[in-house]
Automatic annotation (TrEMBL):
It is an enzyme of class 3 (hydrolase). SUPFAM superfamilies: HAD-like. The keyword Amino-acid biosynthesis applies. Transmembrane segments: none annotated. This is 2-hydroxy-3-keto-5-methylthiopentenyl-1-phosphate phosphatase. GO terms for cellular component: cytoplasm. It comes from the Bacteria.
Amino acid sequence: MSQPTSTFPRKPVLFCDFDGTITLNDNIVAVMKHFNPPGIEEIIKDIVSVKKSIKQGVGEMFALLPSSLKDEVREYILSTAGIRPGFPELLEWCKLHDVPFYVTSGGIDFFIYPLLAPFGIPDDHIYCNGSDFSGDNIKITWPHDCDEHCDNGGCGMCKTAVIRQFPNDEYYRILIGDSITDFAGAKLVDLVFSRSHLTERCRELGLPHIPFDTFHDIIQHLEQGGRTS
Ligand SMILES: [Mg+2]
Ligand SMILES: [Zn+2]
């Protein structure tokens, strides 16, 4: 059997986005479109134009939904979110080659944990935001907020803080993602597997990236040591 991890200059570690990466669509956007609370358009616009931080915007979006919708929102996501092909195979590949795999998501625990339940990822390898349904409206909590080194600020779930726990003289850091919550982390890692907006961003900034469609594509590149050519 080949030993792909030995083709990396240092021990590889994967940080994988959830919404629009592990799942085929962005679940938060889908939920907000479906339940369409008044005022939502404005908030989405402000997040995209960076007028609002991700943390502020996501907090405000969920605060538009009553806590009583919890089960309905979760059921909607569970029934509509598809998992991108090759995801179980990538997890298997990581296990086989002793490559740590972390889910780093700007999404929310109450739909991420149930969606990931079939895949056997340890809880402490899943970083996401929390939720509180004790009030009238849904309140998002931020157990993994930015550390003092994050110059992005207002990440909510700070991917750069998670990535920094793996020093780059020891680890070959690889980020997998698609969109705005991945922009700050992409600047920090050795290699990005990108889709959608993140591909455009990496191109603009000249960051080392490999566009992908399925996780099978990623496995193939990891087998070759993640080389981009
Ligand atoms: Mg995403
Ligand atoms: Zn941050």
